[in-house]
From TrEMBL:
Gene Ontology CC entries for this record: COPI vesicle coat
Protein name: Coatomer subunit beta-like protein
Organism the protein comes from: Leptotrombidium deliense
Gene Ontology BP annotations: endoplasmic reticulum to Golgi vesicle-mediated transport; intra-Golgi vesicle-mediated transport; intracellular protein transport
Segments forming domain Coatomer beta subunit appendage platform: 16-87
InterPro entries linked: COPB1, COPB1_appendage_platform_dom
Length: 88
């Protein structure tokens, strides 16, 4: 969410400043995330660089791993880089 104001002066005006307050701007980051591909080596390098992102606690009612993975991919606009055969 962004908050924005326009502040301006009018020459010859007795007031110090004029302010126009704009409405909040809501941006959903998910609109800008698109699935992509990278090599295994590139992925591992990026994963190591962003170590703080490695640990995520998940609470879900889904018990099937494939079903959970499908849900996660759909919800985050991501792509699974691991071949389907390797997940079986």
């Amino acid at each position: 969410m962004f908050f924005q104001n326009f502040i301006y002066d009018v020459s010859g005006s007795t007031s110090d400043r004029n302010v126009v307050v704009l409405n909040d701007i809501h941006i959903d980051i998910m609109d800008y995330i698109v699935p992509a591909s990278c090599s295994d080596a590139q992925f591992r390098q990026m994963w190591a660089e962003f170590e703080w992102e490695n640990k995520v606690t998940v609470n879900t009612c889904l018990t099937d791993l494939q079903q959970y993975l499908t849900h996660l991919i759909k919800s985050t606009n991501m792509k699974c880089l691991t071949p389907g055969k390797a997940l079986s």
